[in-house]
Amino acid sequence: MNWLDIGALSDIPQRGARLVKTMHGCVAVFRTGDDEVFAIDDRCPHKGGPLSEGIVHGHAVTCPLHNMVISLESGLAQGADQGAVATYPARVEDGRILLDAKRLIRGAAA
Amino acid sequence: MKQKLVIIGAGMASGRVIEHLLAGDPDGWDITLFNAEPRGNYNRIMLSPVLSGEKTYQDIVIHDDAFYTGHNITCRFGEPVVRIDRKNKVVYSNAGGAPYDKLLIATGSAPFIIPVAGKDLPGVVTYRDLDDTNAMMAAAEKPGGRAVVIGGGLLGLEAAAGLKARGMEVTVIHLMGHLMERQLDPAAGYLLQKDLEARGIAVHCKGATKAILGKDHVEAVLLEDGTVYPADMVCMAVGIRPETRLATDAALDVARGVNVTDQMVTSDPDILAVGECVEHDSQLFGLVAPLYDQARVVAATLLGQDAAFAPVQTATKLKVTGVDLFSAGDFADGAGREDIVYRDPARGVYKRLVIEKDRLVGAVMYGDTADGPWFFGLIKDGADIAPMRDTLIFGPAYQGGAQADPLAAVAALPPDAEICGCNGICKGAITAAIDAGASTLADIRATTKASASCGTCTGLVEQVLASTLGDAFQMPAAQPICGCTDLTHEDVRRLIKARGLKSMPAVMQELGWKTPCGCHVCRPALNFYLLADWPQDYTDDPQSRFVNERNHANIQKDGTYSVVPRMWGGMTNPRELRAIADAAEKYAIPAVKVTGGQRIDLLGVQKEHLPHIWADLNAAGLVSGHAYSKGLRTVKTCVGTDFCRFGTQDSTGLGIKLEKRLWGSWTPHKVKLAVSGCPRNCAESTCKDVGIICVDSGFEIGVGGAAGMDLKETERLAKVETEAEAIDLTVAFVQLYREHAKYLDRPYKWLAKVGLDWVQAQIVDNPANRAALIKRFDLSQSIYQRDPWADRATPQAQADFAPLADLTKEAAE
């Protein structure tokens, strides 16, 4: 892995998200209420809604367009819904958010 | 021949090493024990009871003089070691050297001092050893003394409770959002804060210390937010760091602590280390259990036996008399983890278990910690809890059986407890009606009028029926807000007011939420209820708002936004139109549309451009039109007497006055108004939430219209003679709706539930109540009537709305 420092944990509000632009589209970086970080594609599998703008609860986010609930851990749609988004390795070290640069540059397809 | 062992530091970890060594080989070692403190090994964990006066120093001594003499240990207490000479294997204090074959570093930790002005003033103490404790006890002797404790962790809170027990006035300042955030989740932190406050300890969370004030002695603590707490004594308990100076000077491997192997050996094979000064596998240690494990390994290594240190889970209990708190393991949410949450609001009990792959990995308990050791055992053993999962949270004694009775609280109410506030009906009147034959909600409404007005007590009346009639009453299935609770919106609104719940953790704890932080359904509703009921106490939580209200713009299907400036009463002018046209060109707005609410919509704006376009529009005097909010949208008007030959009143002027009064207020759902200048109704007032039609003799006020999913004509609330009365009734109506309606009910839906008669009785027929409603509305507006665009036209907001990072320019490998 090639960990890339993309910003401070405090740049993202608790139960919120910020975007990282990549060659393959936007990746949403979430900070949960317990200060864990998760990175997933910012496109809801339903109609492409920006997941980064959803309400974060537990380790899940609700898409702002049509309320599909996506697990931040697995990227899978929850409940009766079907669908998945790509997830990316993310971690926090000394208050900095680190993403795996190779995965980001390679994109979700790889 | 005996080997020489020199130990630096006579704390609990090194004391345990000595005990193991003596047990394993009583005659093998010639031990010299240095200690900077002028005393031997005592139980540091019990300093809190010493501070509070429940114990004395003598009670907590572990090794007394007789122990040291009896085992021929050379004690050099009160002699800080200044240097380790590794080459010649000698340790030096200022009083002289001591040669060693093996050296054990057990220097423990030092308190962390926040680097603020005034940190060195007399009266500023830390809380690590007996001398600190004695200093605090001396300070507490002055009657009426005031203490500020900086740090709301384990140590800080124990210090606060001890100082309070000694009669001081105590304030705890904590940097984080809730107390003991490393051991507790927000719900348990809330309960702890409530308990401490009930004992008279003031707690200030999210408080960053800016400076300690005072001339010759500490006088006060100043926070970043400007708050000043007067203080005769300040206790800094913000954390500890390993004391590694000697090891660093001796060029041993030191990271955050002194690096040791699994055998507790440092980078020098003849030097071992133990305790809080140690770093093992990137981990530091502060609780006593792992330190005792380390001590066992140190002794085994010295005795030439095989042993390896492997850290195990530790549990925490707060030693404040009367506060029951327990935390163990890892209770953060995590991949594949599930929560079991139990709350008993009446007893102030909160329990949360974290389960991963059928194993218990963490537990947080507050109020009732009797089962803590049992849960801790399950965590340590990694036991499979699948067979008992359903009843796990009830503890080891629980073997199936009925769940706690949700009706118990209602059954326990005394007969004179008021159930229906609108009609003043108490529980006794309802049970009397039941005794007289009433058996349904409709019977109760007909005979007592309870629940026959606003209806928010319906759930309570049903519970009285159920608890009185038992199985003879069929409880209707009430629709809970969401899966996080069994309570309805009406129940929650009532309980928030009745029990004075003023924060989201308070609501979730006191009302027994089943999830740690709610969901996308309940959080926006709770956020609205709290800000509507407690405008001065509650702080709006943007993360509990739907995207449009968080970003102050309407999200479109492609993730872009629409921007709608307010046009008061639908009026505009060339300057505003020019500013809108300039913005549309500057930001390459794909579509510009005139809305049904008489204003202009700029569609297709990128999120990162929002704060910039707002700043440009603000400069021309335009403010947010709140076209995205559950709040006042527009007041549509016709031109009225100014130009129209049929106009009877200044409808435009009234519309502008209403919009200026109501804008910025948050409501259960969106609110749209209209004012028409004559019964021809060009502003379409008759399908608005509040629609006013001007006539020669005054103003007809209609409410509860709809022209969306449902089509509905307004109902006549009242007819008034003056413009001022029309404004008063409108404001009072909006406030009544804010205080009573269910989140996401438009006024017409709420009216169908409570009835127009009730609303008229509240605001038309009752001038005192009307005035009180208006007063509460204006109070709320004094806080919430702010232009969100102006608030966000700042460099900080501009950064927050932009992506955190842009990797599109990184070269692909």
How far do the termini of chain B sit from each other? 65 Å
User: How many E-type strands of chain A?
Assistant: 10
Q: Biggest sheet of chain B, open or closed, and with what strands and sense?
A: 5 strands, parallel
Low-confidence stretches of chain B: 399-406
Amount of helix of chain A: under 10%
Mean pLDDT of chain A: 90
Strand order of the largest sheet of chain B: 3-2-1-7-19
Enumerate how many helices of chain A there are, as a single number: 1
Radius of gyration of chain A: 13 Å
Name given to the CATH homologous superfamily of chain A:
Rieske [2Fe-2S] iron-sulphur domain
What's the rounded overall pLDDT mean of chain B? 89
Summarize, please.
The complex is a heterodimer of chains A (110) and B (813). By secondary structure, chain A is mainly beta.
Structure description:
The complex is a heterodimer of chains A (110) and B (813). With 110 residues, chain A is mainly beta. Chain A has one domain: Rieske [2Fe-2S] iron-sulphur domain (Rieske Iron-sulfur Protein, 3-layer Sandwich). Chain A contains one helix and ten strands. Chain A has a four-stranded antiparallel β-sheet with strand order 2-3-4-8. In chain A, β2 and β3 (25-31) form a beta hairpin. The radius of gyration of chain A is 13 Å and the shape is globular. With 813 residues, chain B is an alpha/beta fold. Chain B folds into six domains: 3-109 and 242-302, FAD/NAD(P)-binding domain, CATH 3.50.50; 124-238, 3-Layer(bba) Sandwich (FAD/NAD(P)-binding domain); 324-394, 2-Layer Sandwich (Enolase-like, domain 1), CATH 3.30.390.30; 408-535, Arc Repressor Mutant, subunit A (Orthogonal Bundle), CATH 1.10.10.1100; 547-624, Sulfite Reductase Hemoprotein, domain 2 (Alpha-Beta Complex), CATH 3.90.480; 632-784, Sulfite Reductase Hemoprotein, domain 1 (2-Layer Sandwich). Chain B has a five-stranded parallel β-sheet, with helices on one face. In chain B, strands 9-16-10-11-12 form a five-stranded parallel β-sheet. In chain B, β37 and β38 (711-712) form a beta hairpin. The radius of gyration of chain B is 34 Å and the shape is elongated. The model of chain B is unreliable at 399-406 (pLDDT under 50). The chains are: A mainly beta (110), B alpha/beta (813). At the A-B interface, β1, β2, β5 and α1 of A face α18 and β40 of B. β2 (16-22) of chain A pairs parallel with β40 (805-806) of chain B.
